[in-house]
Write a structure and sequence with these properties.
about 550 residues; alpha/beta; eight-stranded mixed sheet; five-stranded parallel sheet; 17 helices; about 30% helix; globular; binds 3-acetylpyridine adenine dinucleotide
Length: about 550
């Protein structure tokens, strides 16, 4: 930013991923001044940072795109059923250029602090460049999986080879040809990258603490008619997606209990959906997410597939998840993941009962003393999810209350949109909203539209402050927990409950009630004059 530019805006948006870009566009069109502050040197958010080999979206590309502009949908052509990271990044860059968004984005700048001033009802936003911006509305579009987490194992800095985290991959790419490589972790990022790394590396060792359930993508090239049909109906399809449970269309929901049909029939239904690929299997029966016995039928089906694919029985058994219900950790969608373990240059090492004790200068050592040597280590060890990006900023609300203190026992929000005590701050796809349990683009658009409509409503009525009422927040947090407890989800040690970060409070963070019900609730709240929020005029005017 040059010194002759004002640092005062109606709104500061933190992050230039899908959420930040759309929020900027909507605010600009509504006549609010806005500045986006972005740590990276380009747009893209998660798709800017996660450039590991094999990175793709596990939501089909025709649905993982903006739905707000039919012209945009007609102008962009997706090539594959599941888009690769480079293609998604090109799309986001295309969007930024098409709507001339870059001129309002401050790149290569990290927000370090944001403090609310009661007297002026404004936020001051500090950056690592020493700038201080002031704004009325602070919109956190910081992403849910944007703070990479490396394991808390001694010696990480002592390793003399190359080390990488999937969530912060070098832009120039990495060539593993002829190298002995370790991948630590077997979540979605590992499952996507392992088949590609295995084809390049001389030898690959995969260190697995918990096996994951993974289903085949059955990826294919899209033909002209598939793409054109969606482009022609994008607005209608997006509106429909907002009424579904996960913001995804085309998953046929079979409203039958898995326990009400014969074993043959059950197997046939699972097989049919396995052949479709992706999340199709999630709709096979209506009680897999809530009934442990029903769930076990899905879990055992996937295990049977693993045994079919993986030739070495011991490796196959080690790859079979057993200690959490199917689907309660993010289901992975892969391209030849299990097949990769049939390669002679790939070895699976289970570290469930024999964890990594130390990263050594040459490789790593397990607790039982077994040593390994590597040229490169890939940490596919996940993220400090949902709250990490917000809590690493020194956010202080009314009376200096820090977000860190407020969320000491886990995130508390009203509708995942606002936090009591933090007026005029909005969290796009924040904890307490469907967010990571849904098609993120659908949820992002729903939140951005809601926030923009809300700011227009306030402006029309000369209102300058909106804040979640503590009672509404309490009731919403209770509801989020109650709904989660109706399902099997809290039974898994997943990042949804913060289990992957030592010391993080164990709270089921996203709202599992479904996109449709949630969007309806948000609309009702708005229609009732922003029920559950406290609205007030400019402080000076109210005195
Ligand atoms: O991270 P993860 P991810 N020692 O947390 C292991 C989204 N995503 O980056 O399960 C040894 O799932 C850990 O083991 P455990 C998607 O929502 C989307 O893969 O904690 N191992 C686990 O195996 C996804 O869910 C796409 O026992 C350690 C792995 O590391 C989310 O991002 C693609 C360890 C981490 O798995 C996160 O996925 C990729 C330790 N100390 C990701 N610490 C799309 O397709 C951790 N692990 C859109």
């Amino acid at each position: 930013m040059t010194s002759n530019q004002s640092l005062e805006f109606d709104s500061i948006i933190v992050g230039a991923g899908f959420a930040g870009l759309y929020q900027l566009l909507r605010l600009r069109r509504a006549g609010f001044s806005a500045r986006v502050i972005e740590a990276g040197d380009n747009v893209g958010g998660t798709w800017y940072w996660n450039r590991y080999p094999g990175a793709r979206c596990d939501i089909e590309s025709l649905q993982y795109q903006y739905g707000f502009d039919p012209d945009l949908a007609r102008e962009w052509r997706w090539t594959e059923r599941y888009a690769t990271q480079p293609e998604i990044l090109r799309y986001i860059e295309f969007v930024a250029d098409r709507y001339d968004l870059r001129r309002d984005i401050q790149f290569s700048t990290r927000v370090t602090a944001a403090h609310y001033d009661d007297a002026s009802a404004r936020w001051t936003v500090h950056t690592d460049r020493g700038d201080a911006y002031t704004c009325r509305w602070l919109i956190m579009a910081t992403g849910c999986l944007s703070v990479p987490k490396t394991p808390e194992v001694p010696g990480i800095d002592a390793f003399e080879g190359e080390s990488y985290h999937t969530g912060a991959w070098p832009h120039e790419g990495v060539d593993f040809t002829g190298k002995r490589v370790a991948v630590i972790g077997t979540g979605s990022s590992a499952i996507q990258s392992i088949p590609i790394i295995a084809r390049q590396a001389e030898h690959l060792t995969v260190f697995q603490r918990t096996p994951n359930f993974s289903v085949p993508a059955h990826n294919y090239l899209l033909d002209e008619s598939q793409w054109q049909e969606v482009a022609a109906r994008i607005a209608e399809l997006r509106a429909e997606a907002r009424t579904t449970s996960a913001g995804i269309l085309g998953i046929e929901l079979n409203d039958v209990s898995a326990l009400a049909v014969s074993e043959e029939e059950r197997r046939r239904e699972f097989e049919r959906r396995w052949a479709i690929g992706g999340f199709a299997i999630g709709g096979a029966f209506n009680d897999v997410a809530i009934n442990l016995d029903a769930n076990e039928t899905a879990a055992e089906f996937v295990r049977s597939k693993i045994r079919e694919i993986v030739q070495d029985p011991e490796t196959a058994e080690a790859l079979c998840p057993r200690d959490y219900p199917f689907g309660t950790k993010r289901l992975c969608v892969d391209i030849a993941y299990y097949e990769t373990f049939n390669r002679p240059n790939v070895k699976l090492v289970s570290i469930r009962d024999n964890p990594i004790a130390e990263i050594t200068p040459k490789g790593l050592r397990l607790q039982d003393g077994t040593e390994f040597e590597f040229d490169a280590i890939v940490y596919a060890t996940g993220f400090d999810a949902m709250t990490g990006a917000l809590l690493r900023i020194d956010i202080r609300g009314r009376n200096g209350l820090t977000l860190r203190d407020k969320w000491e026992h886990g995130p508390r929000t009203y509708l995942g949109l606002q936090v009591a005590g933090f007026p005029n701050m909005f969290t796009i796809t924040g904890p307490g909203s469907p967010s990571v349990l849904s098609n993120m683009i659908v949820s992002i658009e729903q939140h951005v539209d809601w926030v923009t409509d809300c700011l227009e409503y306030l402006r029309e009525r000369d209102l300058a402050v909106i804040e979640a009422a503590p009672a509404a927040e309490d009731a919403w947090v209770d509801h989020v927990n109650q709904v989660a407890d109706l399902t099997l989800y809290p039974r898994a040690n997943s990042w949804y409950i913060g289990a992957n970060v030592p010391g993080k409070p164990r709270v089921f963070m996203p709202y599992i009630g479904g996109v449709g019900l949630y969007a309806q609730k948000c609309a009702e709240v708005a229609a009732n004059g922003y029920e559950g929020f406290l609205l007030s005029p400019e402080p000076a005017l109210s005195r």
